[in-house]
Amino acid sequence: MTTLHYEDEQAEIHKLVVGPMDNNVFVLRCKLTGEAALIDAANEHEKLLDLCKRLNVRIVYETHGHWDHIQAVPAVRDAGYDVGVTAADADMLDSYDFVLDDDAVLEVGRLRLHTILTPGHTPGSICFRLEGSPVVFSGDTLFPGGPGNTTFEGGDFDTIIRSIDTKLFPLPGDTIVLPGHGDDTTIRNEQPHLQEWIDRGW
Asked: Among 26, 40, 43, 161, which one is least packed by beta carbons within 10 Å?
């Protein structure tokens, strides 16, 4: 079931949980123009395509290339939606349309989405910060209680810790973290625990 997960003066964020890994799929919609972007075409493509039509999605952004986040990519591309992924993760996808760069600004209607390259979970993991709203889409980089899994091929624990510490933790404490699975958290909730994660090694 799709829910209106977050709303402020400029943006709506809709959330749908799909697939066997309970992936979070988000649609970011500009209230001024009605245009929207889908973040992670994970699974259950029929539901995602219905969501895309209903919410006027124009484009799809992938947080990383792991299989559970890209199952619906072929179907959304066949339906005419362009899909972007980072260069470092691009070879994990059968096909895509454009490359996401670090420290770029993606326009969704009048909304401005800033890219933050956060390697560690995968070499090309990327997060998206919404300008003017206290929101960051963290993919599988940061969750409530710690970093994403780094035991998969291409994962590196020291790298993900560095990404979180230098790229995400400088964000304002009230920033809402919307991860690729599970519940939201905030930067303030997670910041005090960095050393604990380093000590435990995961």
From this structure: 161
Q: How many CA atoms lie within 13 A of 99 on its CB side?
A: 11
Q: Say if residues 156 and 164 touch (Cβ distance below 8 Å).
A: no
The CATH fold of domain 3-200: Metallo-beta-lactamase; Chain A (3.60.15)
The residues pairing with 129 across neighbouring beta strands, listed in sequence order, are: 114, 136
What's the rounded mean pLDDT across residues 79-85? 98
Q: Residues 108, 10: contact at Cβ < 8 Å?
A: no
CA atoms within 13 A on the CB side of 53: 6
Could you tell me which of 14, 47, 24, 13 has the C-alpha nearest to residue 139?
A: 24
Token pair 């790298």: residue: 159
What is the domain partition of the chain in residue ranges?
Answer: 3-200
Cβ contacts of residue 165 below 8 Å, gap of 6+?
Answer: 194
pLDDT at 49 over 90: yes
Rounded Cα distance between 43 and 200, Å, is 32
Sole residue written with tokens 């994970």: 42
**Confidence (pTM):** 0.98
Q: What is the pLDDT of residues 108-123, one digit of tens each?
A: 999 999 999 999 999 9
Report DSSP letters for 77-141, one per residue. HHTT-EEEEEGGGGGGSS--SEEEPTT-EEEETTEEEEEEE-TTSSTT-EEEEETTTTEEEEETT
Longest Cα separation, the chain: 47
